[in-house]
């Protein structure tokens, strides 16, 4: 019966563990008022309208970590901080808050649950604007530069309107589990603006659920058998 218990534990553990890692761009739509909104079906949306990304992330069961010059901005079209970091509103027609990271700066959003996709509205892309996806332990899964996201060479500046602005959705492939996403500006110039980051929690596939149920069922059967075997009968 100990063997049955061991097999059950092994099956449950195998079903719950990721097998492969990969993140791809599953959708990219040119910036517009329509594509600015978070996609339908998103389980969590970070819209930066509160002005405090750490509090907003915490209220939605997430974490937010910044490095360098990284903060929320109001509805102004153009914002200059006096050190050469110029920020443009991602969607020109929207007057609500957005987030921007300046020179050699970043924002990392962490999730306590596995994510199947992350979608964000990205403004005036430059090649040194980078989106990085992280696994459960913080290991890097995939990294995308501005040119990879845009799909063509980019000249500085990327633009102040809809030239390179777009809604981009990144999806996990296979059994990949995303637990974090980092938006960074990896150069001593320019900035990276984005808004309405939409995250979708991962749902195990039916086959995975079946394997987990079989494993837990075997564990339960082994436990019941051991309890019955431990009973002592007195004449």
Provide an overview of this structure.
The protein has one domain: Jelly Rolls (Sandwich). The chain has five helices and 13 strands. Strands 1, 2, 3, 4, 7, 8, 9, 10, 11, 12 and 13 form an eleven-stranded antiparallel beta sheet that branches. Helix 1 runs antiparallel to helix 5.
Please name the defining characteristics of this protein.
235 residues; alpha+beta; Jelly Rolls; eleven-stranded antiparallel sheet; globular; disordered N terminus
Question: What's the CATH architecture name?
Answer: Sandwich
SSE ordering:
HEHEHEEEEEEEEHEEEH
Number of strands: 13
Question: What's the CATH C level?
Answer: Mainly Beta
Q: What is the structural class?
A: alpha+beta
Q: What percent of residues adopt helix (DSSP H or I)?
A: 10-25%
> Rounded to an integer, what's the Rg over CA atoms?
23 Å
How many individual domains? 1
N→C terminal distance: 27 Å
Based on CA inertia axes, which overall geometry fits? globular
Q: What is the makeup of the main sheet?
A: 11 strands, antiparallel
At the fold tier of CATH, the topology name is: Jelly Rolls
Report the mean per-residue pLDDT as an integer.
Answer: 81
How many distinct helices?
5
State the CATH superfamily name: Galactose-binding domain-like
Report the β-strand fraction as a percent range.
35-45%
Task: Give the helix/strand layout.
Elements: H1 2-16, E1 23-30, H2 33-36, E2 44-46, H3 53-59, E3 62-67, E4 70-73, E5 78-80, E6 86-88, E7 98-101, E8 105-123, E9 129-134, E10 140-145, H4 146-150, E11 166-172, E12 178-185, E13 192-201, H5 206-229
Antiparallel strand pairs: 1-11, 2-13, 3-8, 4-7, 5-6, 7-13, 8-11, 8-12, 8-13, 9-10, 9-12
